[in-house]
Specification:
heterodimer; A: alpha/beta; Rossmann fold; six-stranded mixed beta sheet; four-stranded antiparallel beta sheet; 26% helix; B: ABC transporter involved in vitamin B12 uptake, BtuC; binds adenosine-5'-diphosphate; binds magnesium ion
Chain lengths: 291, 289
């Protein structure tokens, strides 16, 4: 089902090869396989609980895979630390924490170094340039905890990118953002960083619609497995039905794509709606719709 | 009325108190900033309670209570890390279990102390501090505990800061988050032991947390917060020593008031002032969502 990897292997920034993960005895990911090339803007799409965070943590080396391997820039993930930047899912930033936006960005450069940091003109210039690149200069000296959600995401992206990684992983950076802030972040990532600076971006989302117009490719996670390809190749009834293991419909509602399953109680939106649920997780909300 | 009562500068116990209290206040300010920043005040409280256990044990062993304060703190820090201080629920459990066991032992030791020792006031010394009765020989021990504590937060400044923002971000940058956290807990244990000898075991968190909380209120960067906390603690401790010395001439009895009362009261009022009048850095209402 996954289209064969045809690209030159040496060009690959990320190569996820048959990764399986079991957590607490439960299979979470099953033979996930995909690759990302320089400058590609790739969406990791799946409902809540589909395994997006788990997959990103495996790529980062924070979570061991039960089987399979991850290579970054041709190297095993364990030896590729400097090549990856990461923006984790919803960090709570405390307004009482005396950390300014520029402090957090500077920590992206040398947060693992020992000793008290000495002020240096070169470092300040790098931090200012990075803040400017994400349009965050005007709140550079404010505490991160006091910034709005969209502003915090810009600072987190600057933190992740200041060490000049080739691959940027973002875990649901658009969740909890208003539409305009979300659009600005998408634009920044896809145009400025992916297309202009050739940073490969893997961005996870449970709501794919805001991303669909700009994604080069999709990694669609469901039932622990992944379907990979362009939007046209993946968001199709045959591909997704085979992925989910039962029939699903792909509906286009005024340009908004919904993936819908037919159940005894009516229809269940699996993707495309903010409240989309993973089958087998009854705790997530269901949307009943009339035919 | 004079600020410095007669004999203040000639008194040897005052000299020792100024040195021990001063070092302790600076160490507590520097370490306390990270204690508050990392949300580990609860660990500071537990370690303060446990200092009672260590202090009462050291009287039985006939050594300076400082050894007991620090010894039990280091052991407790290790146990708390082992039980799982990183997860919020594990952290509550770890603190609760260690603290409960420690206070049980403290009751036993204090009982033995008071029944076996001819000197009264053992519990007072442990609970409310002993700066004025500490011998000069303890000063090197104070330095030996204070310097490593300061060294830990200075060396691990950036990893500690990054892992307080997010342990995951720190781990991705190659920080050994657990080891860093354990080192920080050890620094807190050492700082608490110094605080316990200065203001007493039950008030020890006041000197650790108070100045740091004030500093985090009025400064905008971690480095400035550390320096401010150290200065606030130092000011409160030295002014407290002066007032305690003066209070010898105050009612009700001519015994003087306890120095820990003055220090903690000064910190408390400074905290109130910082809450009421301290600027709230960056608290700007932004138009953008
Ligand atoms: N530490 C863990 N132990 C057991 N199960 C886990 C653990 N972490 C996550 N899971 C489970 O793995 C599945 C995938 O989780 P996650 O990767 O967080 O999904 P997503 O990020 O797509 O919402 C969920 O069903 C979740 O309950
Ligand atoms: Mg997730």
């Amino acid at each position: 089902m996954t289209p064969a990897v045809t690209a030159d292997e040496t060009r690959q920034v990320l190569d996820v090869d048959g990764v399986s993960v079991r957590l607490a005895g439960r299979p979470i990911l099953d033979e996930v396989r995909f690759a990302i090339e320089p400058g590609e803007f790739v969406g990791l799409i799946g409902a809540n609980g589909a395994g997006k965070t788990t997959l990103l943590r495996v790529i980062l080396g924070l979570q061991a895979a039960t089987a399979g391997s991850v290579r970054i820039g041709g190297k095993p993930a364990a030896h590729a630390r400097g090549l990856v930047g990461y923006v984790p899912q919803k960090i709570q930033l405390d307004p009482d924490m005396p950390v300014r936006a520029r402090d957090l960005v500077a920590l992206g450069l040398d947060g693992n170094k020992l000793g008290i940091p000495l002020p240096s003109r070169g470092k300040r210039k790098l931090v200012d340039e990075m803040l400017a690149a994400v349009d965050a200069l005007r709140f550079a000296d404010e505490r991160v905890g006091n910034l709005s959600g969209g502003e915090q995401q810009r600072v987190m992206i600057a933190h992740a990118l200041i060490s000049k990684p080739r691959l940027l992983l973002l875990d649901e950076p658009l969740a909890n953002l208003d539409i305009r802030s979300a659009q600005e972040i998408i634009e920044l990532l896809s145009k400025r960083f992916a297309k202009q600076q050739q940073v490969s971006v893997l961005i996870s989302a449970h709501e794919m619609n805001p991303l669909l117009p700009v994604l080069d490719r999709i990694v669609y996670l469901a039932a622990g497995r992944a379907a990979t390809g362009t939007t046209e190749e993946v968001i199709r009834e045959d591909v997704l039905s085979s992925l989910y293991g039962h029939h699903v419909d792909v509906l286009n509602m005024h340009g908004r794509i919904l993936v819908v399953a037919h159940t005894d109680e009516g229809f269940q939106v699996l993707a495309g709606d903010d409240r989309a649920a993973e089958p087998g997780h009854p705790d997530h909300s269901r949307t009943g719709m009339q035919a | 009325m004079t600020v410095f009562a007669p004999g203040f500068f000639a008194s040897s116990p005052v000299h020792v108190a100024l040195v021990i209290g001063g070092i302790s206040a600076v160490v507590c300010g520097l370490v306390g900033t990270f204690t508050v920043l990392r949300g580990q005040s609860y660990a500071g409280h537990a370690l303060g309670d446990l200092a009672v256990t260590g202090g009462s044990a050291s009287f039985l062993a006939n050594v300076s209570p400082l050894w007991g304060f620090a010894g039990i703190g280091v052991i407790a820090a290790g146990i708390m890390d082992m039980i799982g201080i990183r997860r919020p629920r594990g952290r509550d459990l770890a603190t609760g279990i260690v603290r409960g066991a420690g206070l049980g032992l403290a009751a036993l030791f204090l009982y033995w102390d008071t029944t076996s020792s001819s000197t009264t006031g053992v519990s007072i010394t442990i609970l409310f501090g002993s700066m004025f009765t500490t011998s000069t020989s303890v000063v090197p021990v104070v330095l030996a505990f204070g310097l490593p504590a300061v060294a830990i937060v200075a060396i691990l400044f950036r990893p500690l800061l990054l892992s307080s923002v997010s342990p995951e971000l720190a781990a991705v940058r190659g920080v050994r988050v657990r080891l860093t956290g354990l080192a920080c807990l050890l620094a807190i244990a050492l700082a608490v032991s110094l605080s316990a000898i200065t203001v007493g075991a039950i008030l020890s968190t006041a000197l650790l947390i108070g100045p740091a909380a004030i500093a985090l209120r009025v400064t905008n960067t971690p480095g400035r917060a550390m320096v401010t906390a150290a200065l606030v603690g130092l000011g409160a401790t030295w002014i407290g020593i002066v007032l305690a010395y003066d209070s010898f001439y105050w009612p009700p009895s001519h015994d003087g008031w306890p120095v820990s009362f003055f220090i903690v009261a000064l910190i408390f009022f400074s905290f109130l002032v910082s809450q009421l009048f301290g600027r709230r850095p960056g608290r700007v209402i932004r138009a953008e969502g």
